[in-house]
Design a protein that fits this description.
DUF998, membrane, 10 helices, 2 domains, transmembrane, two-stranded antiparallel ribbon, 352 residues, mainly alpha, globular, transmembrane helix
Length: 352
């Protein structure tokens, strides 16, 4: 992208942000019209503002995708077009989720610092407009040139934002003495943590779809069978992550634990399978994979038998290491994969 194209892109994002601000401010003012409301809690501006911001962000992403990447599917067979469209829809859902949870988190933090403040309808509308402009501008820019590594950042941003909101609103302040699953065990806001895991699972499966896209750009139709297994492993890992949220620990502990351990096993399997399929097996990815494996072993030993921290610490370290590995993988793919789309010559998706 040259300087002129970059300037045009930034101008488009700026214009989209202003449109999102106006839409968000008008919709927020209409929803919040009436009496002044607190920043967080029951009857606050939080949930209406979050809903408006989520819809604006999802709409901005959809508009940008159609405008800038609509031609990517030209020449693709129906199955490849369908995969691309479903993947974009999943990203739009994740963008909406991140935006909504970010607004709710901001409301909880501001309510602590501005204790007792009540916001009038127009003030709430302006705050909603600001949140919509920030989220909508980000979503619009994301839709212009969506790359796989940006999806991983979105995935972990979504997981972290949802977890932070759950921590801020947790009914049990001592949940961290056990594990993160306690955030989804009952309580008025347990839906936030469990819902984050469900949508995060969908987004993890979507990351697999884009990994498959990049591998296909590198290897072509001859490798569709092997690429298909990578995509399936990502989809199963996403399903396992969603299962952790759908099966809260206080209602189905055994099933919850099975889903959690299945997620770990599937992540390990897809790591091995992905490293094997990438041509040349880049050294940076191999070294990072070995380092992550060693890090996980050390983290487990610090949990048991050394008892340096609780299972919460182990889970936090595991998530961080997973982010490091996925980021390295996708940077490697970004360096190897051509920029342009690569329509498949196969009319039907079938392994030969």
């Amino acid at each position: 992208m040259n300087d002129v194209d970059a300037l045009r892109s930034e101008s488009s994002v700026t214009a989209a942000s202003w449109v999102c601000f106006i839409v968000g401010a008008l919709a927020g003012s209409a929803l919040l019209w009436g009496v002044a409301r607190p920043l967080a809690g029951e009857g606050s501006i939080g949930f209406p503002a979050a809903a408006v911001t989520a819809l604006v962000a999802a709409g901005a992403f959809a508009m940008s995708t159609v405008r800038f990447r609509g031609a990517e599917t030209a020449g693709m067979p129906p199955w490849q077009t369908a995969v691309s469209r479903v993947s974009d829809a999943a990203v739009a859902l994740a963008v909406a989720g991140v935006s909504a949870l970010a607004v709710l988190c901001a409301g909880e933090v501001l309510a602590i610092g501005l204790h007792g403040l009540e916001v009038p309808p127009l003030g709430g509308g302006l705050l909603t407009g600001i949140a919509s402009a920030a989220s909508g501008g980000f979503a619009y820019g994301l839709g212009m040139r969506l790359r796989t590594r940006e999806l991983v950042t979105l995935l972990f941003a979504f997981l972290i934002t949802g977890t932070l909101f759950s921590m801020l609103t947790a009914a049990d302040p001592w949940w961290w003495e056990r594990n993160f699953s306690q955030l989804g065990a009952g309580g008025q806001t347990s839906w936030a943590f469990n819902g984050t895991l469900v949508v995060g699972g969908l987004l993890l499966a979507t990351v697999g779809s884009y990994v498959g896209r990049d591998l296909h750009r590198i290897l072509g139709d001859d490798a569709l069978g092997r690429i298909g297994w990578i995509v399936v492993l990502f989809a199963l890992a996403g399903a396992a992550l969603a299962g952790v949220g759908l099966l809260p620990v206080h209602r189905a502990q055994l099933a919850h634990n099975v889903a959690a351990f299945a997620l770990l096993a599937l992540l390990g399997a897809l790591a091995v399978a992905t490293i094997r399929i990438i041509p040349g097996r880049p050294r940076a990815l191999a070294v990072t994979s070995a380092g992550v494996a060693v890090g996980l072993v050390v983290a487990v030993l610090l949990w048991r038998p050394l008892a340096i921290y609780s299972a919460t610490g182990l889970e936090a370290v595991a998530v961080g290491l997973a982010f490091v590995w996925l980021t390295t993988l996708l940077r490697t793919l970004a360096a190897l994969a051509p920029e342009g789309s690569r329509p498949s010559a196969r009319v039907r998706l079938a392994v030969r």
